[in-house]
Specification:
The protein has about 375 residues and is α+β, with helices and mostly antiparallel strands. The protein has one domain: 4-Layer Sandwich (Chorismate synthase, AroC fold), CATH 3.60.150. About 30% of the residues lie in helices and about 20% in strands. It has eleven helices and 17 strands. The strands form six sheets. It has a five-stranded antiparallel beta sheet. It has a four-stranded antiparallel beta sheet with strand order 1-2-6-3. Helix 1 packs across helix 5, helix 5 crosses helix 10 and helix 8 runs antiparallel to helix 10. The protein is globular, with a radius of gyration of 22 Å. The two termini are about 25 Å apart.
Length: about 375
C-alpha cells in the first residue's frame, strides 16, 4: 500500500497550480524557501523559452505545516501563474458568449490530436493547457518535500545531462558524491559535467533556436545512501525499478528509461555483466552495472537511472498537419515554446525519484512522526 500519495491540478495559463501530498510524517522541518530553491533549478538552462522570464514560481504552503514543521496531515501547495493576467479572458472558468478563437490544428508529436479525440473537444486549447509541462513545476514542489525527508537519512539525489542532440558525454561520474554532481551540473548552462561537450551542446541549441527547431537529449539521476530492501520482489507493483520507471516516464517528452548499464546489458556476457559480491566488514560489489537495484529492490549501492527526452514538438517552424474541422492540409499550430528542455527534465526527474524513494522508505520502515521513522531506521536499516 502506497504511503505517499500526491496529485496536481491547474492549467498552463490558468490562475495557479495546485498540489496535495499525503503521507509525510509529522515534525519534518520544511520551508517555502527550501522548495523555492528546487523550483529555481527547474527554470535554469539554455534553451528555455520566454515563459521562464515571466514566472517566479514561488511556492505557497497553504496547509499541513505549522510553525515550520509538518503536521502529518495532507500538505497543500500553490504556485501562482504570473502569466494569468494575460490569459484571463481565454482561460476564464465561467461561461462567456464572447467569441474566443478555437485551435483546430494539432501539432505532430504533442497530445493535441489524441487528446481532442479522447475527450471530444473541438478546441485543442483544452488539451494544450493540461498536457503542458508547466504542470511539472508542482511536481518539483511536491518532490522537494520528499527530498527534505530523504536528506534527514543522508539519502542524496542528483542529476546531470549526458547528451543533447548528437553530442554525448560518456564519462563515468560514479566517483563523484551526488551533492558534488549537482553543484557542478548547476554551474553549467546545460547541466553537463564535461566542458568540451558542454560547448558543443550550447552551440547546437543556439543553432536550433536560429532555425526555429528543437533538440532532445538524455540525462542520469543518481541516488546515494539508500539502504537495502526498498521495494520488493514479491509483487509486480512493489518493484522499485518499475515504480521509478513509471515516475520518470510520466515526465513530458521522456521516451526511454534505463537502470544501471541499461540497454548496453545486451552487449555483455552474464559473467561480464553481473556485479560480483565480496565482504569487507560489509557486503560490497566490484561494479555497479545493475544500477543499485536487483530483483526489484535496492541493494545498498548507488541507484543510477537514465532517461531520454525527445525534441519538444512545438516548433517555431511548424510541421505539416491537418485542420480538424476542414480536414485541409495546413501547418501545425504554434505556441510559445522552449528549444531544449533536457536540463529542466533532469531536475524534474530528480523530484520524481525523490517521491518514489521516499514512498519506498516509508513503506519499509513506517512511522507517523519523524521521531518514529528515525527510530525504525536506526534500529533495522541495513547498509
Amino acid at each position: 500500500m502506497k504511503k505517499i500519495k500526491f496529485t496536481t491540478a491547474g492549467e498552463s495559463h490558468g490562475e495557479l497550480l495546485l498540489g496535495i501530498i499525503e503521507g509525510i510524517p509529522s515534525n519534518l522541518e520544511i520551508t517555502e524557501e527550501y522548495i523555492y530553491k528546487q523550483l529555481k533549478r527547474r527554470q535554469m538552462g539554455l534553451g528555455r523559452g520566454k515563459r521562464m522570464k515571466i514566472e517566479s514560481d514561488k511556492p505557497h504552503i497553504c496547509s499541513g505545516v505549522r510553525l515550520g514543521k509538518t503536521l502529518g496531515s495532507p500538505i497543500g501547495l500553490i504556485i501562482k501563474n504570473n502569466d494569468w493576467d494575460n490569459w484571463k479572458k481565454k482561460m476564464n472558468v465561467n461561461f462567456t458568449d464572447k467569441p474566443i478563437k478555437k485551435i483546430t490544428v494539432p501539432r505532430p508529436g504533442h497530445a493535441d490530436l489524441a487528446g481532442a479525440m479522447k475527450f471530444d473537444f473541438d478546441d485543442i486549447r483544452n488539451v494544450i493547457e493540461r498536457s503542458s509541462a508547466r504542470e511539472t513545476a508542482m511536481r518539483v514542489a511536491v518532490g522537494s518535500i520528499c527530498r527534505k525527508l530523504l536528506e534527514q537519512y543522508n539519502i542524496k539525489v542528483g542529476s546531470y545531462v549526458t547528451s543533447i542532440y548528437k553530442y554525448k558525454d560518456n564519462s563515468d561520474y560514479n566517483y563523484l558524491k551526488v551533492n558534488d554532481i549537482n553543484k557542478q551540473a548547476d554551474k553549467s548552462d546545460v547541466r553537463c559535467l564535461n566542458k568540451t561537450i558542454e560547448k558543443k551542446m550550447i552551440n547546437a541549441i543556439k543553432d536550433a533556436q536560429k532555425k526555429g527547431d528543437s533538440l532532445g537529449g538524455s540525462f542520469q539521476v543518481h541516488v546515494s545512501g539508500v539502504p537495502y530492501g526498498l521495494g520488493s520482489y514479491t509483487s509486480w507493483n512493489e518493484k522499485l525499478n518499475a515504480n521509478l520507471g513509471k515516475a520518470i516516464l510520466s515526465i513530458n517528452g521522456i521516451k526511454s528509461f534505463d537502470i544501471g548499464l541499461g540497454e548496453l546489458s545486451e552487449q555483455k556476457l552474464g559473467s561480464e555483466l553481473h556485479d560480483e559480491i565480496q565482504y569487507n566488514q560489509t557486503f560490497e560489489r566490484t561494479t555497479n552495472n545493475c544500477g543499485g537495484i536487483e530483483g526489484g529492490m535496492s541493494n545498498g549501492q548507488r541507484i543510477i537511472l537514465s532517461a531520454t527526452m525527445k525534441p519538444i514538438p512545438t516548433l517555431i517552424k511548424p510541421l505539416k498537419s491537418v485542420d480538424m474541422n476542414t480536414k485541409e492540409a495546413v501547418l501545425a499550430h504554434k505556441e510559445r515554446t522552449d528549444s531544449c528542455s533536457v536540463p529542466a527534465a533532469s531536475i524534474i526527474a530528480e523530484s520524481m525519484a525523490c517521491i518514489i524513494i521516499c514512498d519506498a522508505l516509508l513503506e519499509k520502515f513506517g512511522g507517523d512522526s519523524m521521531q518514529q521513522l528515525t527510530s525504525h531506521i536506526e534500529s533495522s536499516a541495513k547498509y
